[in-house]
Design a protein that fits this description.
GO molecular function: metal ion binding
CATH class of the largest domain: Mainly Beta
CATH superfamily of the largest domain: Superoxide dismutase, copper/zinc binding domain
CATH architecture of the largest domain: Sandwich
Largest sheet: 8 strands, antiparallel
Order of helices and strands: HEEEEEEHEEEEEEEEHEE
Shape: globular
Protein name: CHRD domain-containing protein
Radius of gyration: 27 Å
Organism: Zunongwangia atlantica 22II14-10F7
Helix content: 10-25%
GO biological process, one term: superoxide metabolic process
Strand content: over 45%
Pfam families: CHRD (PF07452)
Strand order of the largest sheet: 5-4-7-8-1-2-3-6
Number of helices: 3
Length: 284
């Protein structure tokens, strides 16, 4: 019995040590992941995802996984500053997408300036967007694009009708989309515009019935070929002496204003389309 008791004590001691050892072992690292949809630009037919994976050393692995890429081609890719609607300089150069596989994988811990570190948390709040280009010799042509970080849309939106005014057949909608950072993507979509024309557009103060009102926010001119305009709105227009006032999505959908779309830069007196927005819009 003595011998059995000694063996039992030793066994229990081993179990106890094993339990203590297990308690001191750190759990395996489980990094965070964020995924963004990359949409096709124009008629490229290229789309897919951009996945950000947090690594244990603090770096981030960015994987682009695209369909519709060109076999034998290499598609340069970059993270840019600002939203896609605004455009901006390159912040981070990514590995080109291999046209054969549609894959690009880049591990980053710094911006291209080689001075500014970038973490997973920084990237998912980043004021940026991703461009994927046709080729190194044709960077002007984009095949896929997406906003990232704070510029991602929340899913909240509000649309307003833009009615025909002085230019026959031109009408459409203005849609305000909320971003994660509280800013707004303003999309004008018009029917009846013609290729070769550009139509200046503005948000004015007051209602259509009280027009003319002062310009509050200058929007990107509507392209006549596509009938489209995209503008990122974060503030009202400033002046030479004063910066504009910060304006959020919530501010805009309650704004006392209206939108004018003009015939051309040379003919601002002729209105192509117009509509009340915010507090002045008619509830349907």
């Amino acid at each position: 019995m003595k011998k059995f008791g000694v063996l039992l004590f030793a066994f229990l001691g081993l179990v106890s040590c094993s339990d203590d050892d297990d308690a001191n072992v750190d759990p395996p690292f489980e990094g965070q992941t964020e995924e963004y949809d990359l949409g096709a630009v124009g008629e490229s037919g290229v789309s897919g995802t951009a996945t950000f994976d947090e690594n244990e050393d603090g770096s981030v692995t960015i994987t682009l996984d695209l369909e519709g890429t060109t076999e034998g081609a290499m598609h340069p890719a970059h993270i840019h500053y600002n939203s896609a609607a605004e455009g901006g300089d390159i912040a981070i150069s990514l590995e080109p997408v291999d046209g054969d596989t549609g894959i690009s994988e880049t591990t980053v811990s710094m911006l291209d300036d080689e001075e500014t570190s970038i973490s997973f948390e920084d990237l998912i709040d980043f004021d940026g967007y991703i461009n994927v280009h046709a080729s190194a010799d044709d960077l002007e042509t984009l095949v896929a694009q997406t906003d990232i970080g704070g510029n991602v849309l929340t899913g909240e939106s509000q649309s307003y009708d833009l009615a025909e005014v002085d230019v026959e057949g031109v009408s459409g909608t203005a849609t305000f989309y909320e971003r994660e950072n509280g800013e707004t993507l303003v999309e004008l979509a018009l029917d009846g515009t013609t290729e070769g024309n550009t139509h200046p557009a503005h948000i004015h103060m007051g209602a259509v019935a009280d027009a003319p009102g002062d310009i509050a926010i200058t929007l990107t001119s509507v392209d006549g070929a596509s009938g489209m305009s995209l503008t990122n709105v974060a503030s009202t227009d400033g002046t030479e002496d004063e910066e504009g006032t910060s304006v959020s999505y919530e501010d805009l959908i309650g704004f006392d204003g209206y939108i004018n779309v003009h015939a051309s830069a040379d003919d601002l007196d002729t209105l192509a389309a117009q509509g009340d927005i915010g507090a002045n819009a008619t509830e349907e």
